[in-house]
């Protein structure tokens, strides 16, 4: 691979941006397609879109270039949880089983302790001090705000909306969410952005216990990942370079 191309590929990976290395089998020529590129005029445009959705590499045929191999490089979906609560404890193993990396942010050290969360990165700090300095948000990230405390939840919700997170959810009743919408509107969030917040959080399965709510939240995140308006977020597939 050309050194400049390799450096560009590594930059995209480090920045958690999707890209596809296109290799012509007959000639060995290579090019890099970024997920942010306008590929509408490319003969492989539909194939690129499908590959970014699936995250899977593979061989395809192109009328102009013959057989080409598409090596897809995409970051795994990630779940950032605001609040080291009982629901978060139940979410931890579920997210891991579903293939999601997960991090938790909560300034309340009585809740955010390694003893309660031994298997997940934990930030016992205010979200303002963590995002984006230690935890970046992007279109491959789902954010779930679970503290029920505006002082903790509001800032990451605004940042998640402005960062294009594929899923943004918040715990609370419809009345609680109405008050939240008023606050976030005053903070500058648009009506379209606010409409993206899933609240009350989780699929409506009548969940009552923290464990049941965790199942409902994870189900909603996966539904948005696979069927939502931003369904171009790929599967958690990590494939080696060809």
Automatic annotation (TrEMBL):
Gene3D superfamilies: NAD(P)-binding Rossmann-like Domain. It comes from the Bacteria. Residues 79-221 form the XdhC Rossmann domain. Pfam families: XdhC_C. InterPro entries: MoCofactor_Util/Proc (IPR052698), XdhC_Rossmann_dom (IPR027051). This is Putative sulfurylase large subunit (Molybdopterin cytosine dinucleotide biosynthesis).
